């Protein structure tokens, strides 16, 4: 049997215009006796190897780019789902929550964020914040309603505190405040006012003869007569049978005419046989208009009117018979 053995291989690089760059590998083949039987040689094209290398690199780069795009898509999808979308949901819910023009408010509890990270913790914190704010607002609304009720009750009590229960006129406290306002107006140079004092005659006799209920009717009758006469001015009941009027506007300008009208109305009541004795009221009236030469305050005007009322009362008693 013939055996051939290869000896040392030799390499040779050459360039041919037709074949390009070639690497030639050659080695001698020995027979059984150690003699060279033949030569084995092979040509390897470097251009082909470079082409394959270029194709491999191109394929590798394309694969890497495709892998990169896929990873980017996955990362973007993940970030959008677990970061951007939850953040936008929280932001939109916050805007709807704080904007009073929004008709519908998105509750933080309905966002359904389950990222398992800080965003979910943030949602839980905002849910608790929303509950706390809703509780606070509810308590605030209740408190406001209670304050409104309390304010209304206080206003009502204040009105009652300044109102005469029998006649519905302002009482002594209301009149004292009216005097304070008049004094403030005097400091501001507003002096066009006057005070009228009216005192009901024979109230004690009516109470003794017909009872206090009838006396109350007399007080309501005279208060109605005063209010119908001085329609542009505030009227006060400052004592049991004493009334005052702060003369304003047209009542201030027409005081003489209104005083005559007041006494004429009393005469009509006295001449009316169809009404009860306690409705035939009689009262004395005295008035004074502010005079800078004599008056330093509204109280001074009141005192002069009060003095004139008592003078009138004496004249009325002297000119009529005693009794009811």
Main features:
single chain; 324 residues; alpha+beta; 4-stranded antiparallel β-sheet; 3-stranded antiparallel β-sheet; 56% helix; 17% strand
Describe the structure.
- It is a single chain.
- The chain has 324 residues and is an alpha+beta fold.
- The protein is 56% helix and 17% strand.
- The chain contains 8 helices and 7 strands, in the order E-E-E-H-H-H-E-H-H-E-E-H-H-E-H.
- The chain has helices spanning 46-98, 118-161, 172-187, 203-210, 212-229, 249-253, 255-270, 298-319; strands spanning 5-16, 20-30, 36-45, 194-200, 235-237, 242-247, 283-289.
- The chain has a 4-stranded antiparallel β-sheet with strand order 5-6-4-7, sandwiched between helices. The chain has a 3-stranded antiparallel β-sheet with strand order 1-2-3.
- The N and C termini lie far apart (175 Å).
- 19% of the residues are buried.
- The mean pLDDT is 84.
Distance between the termini: 175 Å
Morphology: rod-shaped
How would you write the strand order of the largest sheet?
5-6-4-7
Strand content is: 15-25%
Largest sheet: 4 strands, antiparallel
Low-confidence stretches: none
Order of helices and strands: EEEHHHEHHEEHHEH
Average of per-residue pLDDT values: 84
